[in-house]
Amino acid sequence: MAISVDSPGESQDLCRKAGYSYTFLSDPNADVIRRYDLLHKGAGVNGHDIARPAEFLLDSSGTIRWINLTGDLRVRARPDEMLQAAKSL
Amino acid sequence: MPDNFPANAGATDPGAPPNVTKRRPNAPLWLGFLIVVFAFLSYIPIFARYPVTRDMPWANFLFFALGLLFLFVGLRRAFTQPHLYRGKIAGSILSTLSVAALAFFCLIIFSLGKRLPPSAQAPKVGQQAPDFTLADTSGHTVSLASLLSTSDPSHPTKGVILIFYRGYW
User: Fold this and answer.
1) How far apart are the C-alpha atoms of A26 and A19, rounded to whole Å?
2) How do residues B37-53 score in pLDDT, each as one tens digit?
3) Does the reported pTM lie above 0.80?
4) Is the dihedral of CA B90, B92, B98, B103 positive or negative?
5) Quick one: which H or E segment has residue A40?
6) What φ, ψ does residue A63 adopt, rounded to 5°?
7) Alpha-carbon span A52 to B122, nearest angstrom
8) Is the Cβ of A5 closer than 8 Å to some Cβ of chain B?
């Protein structure tokens, strides 16, 4: 699933345009983003606080098995990296 | 006095080169500048197509190098053969813009993207992911726990990938 500060409507537009079929959740006040210590203060338009990119793989018990905290905005986890990590579950 | 100042002083200046209107346009300058503009704007389209160029945009740097080479050729003939080629002023402006574009590109690629918070308190491997409840795209609330559990015993949930992304605000 994906989480951002976008509203449900904005995420819906994105899913429709990009063809994403997984769950998109809205965290408009960045509460969950803050709880995961992923807040990027003032990095959004008009100085809004947004999430920094981060990916977590959880097993069925909710335990974190793999994390990608990128050091560079341009460099995100690639699909094959995630699939490789998911194979270990 | 302004009234006596000849309006066409340049044209009648006996010191001006006689064939000033016959100078050829300096195509490499403009071609080089166009290539530099392309190099600057094409980072995302190129890596969307060839993902290997995302982390190190060598294709864009090749285009920058090619564009600057053309600019150098054009600039050199504008200054060494000014009687044959135009482009002293335009070439200087285009070259300055091109070098600035390359510098800005390097700043974006090598510096701006790395200005990220440390996230030292982010959950670690082996820890339990903190539960939460948020609205999905239809406005229904969804909890992490509900995604981890499943009502279908023949297809048990193997896991969940959480992707935090910047969004489009």
Assistant:
1) 18
2) 999 999 999 988 988 88
3) no
4) negative
5) strand A39-40
6) -80, 140
7) 11
8) yes
Distance from CA of B98 to the nearest CA of A (A): 23
| Alpha-carbon distances of B124 from A57, A64, B151, rounded to whole Å | 11, 7, 28
pLDDT in tens, B106-121: 999 999 888 899 999 9
Count residue pairs from A and B with Cβ separation < 8 A. 182
Q: How far apart are CA B144 and CA B129, in angstroms?
A: 9
The answer to whether the beta carbons of residues A54 and A46 sit under 8 Å apart is: no
Asked whether the ipTM of the predicted complex exceeds the cut of 0.90, the reply is: yes
Residues 6+ apart with CB under 8 A from A18: none
B144 contact A CB<8A: yes
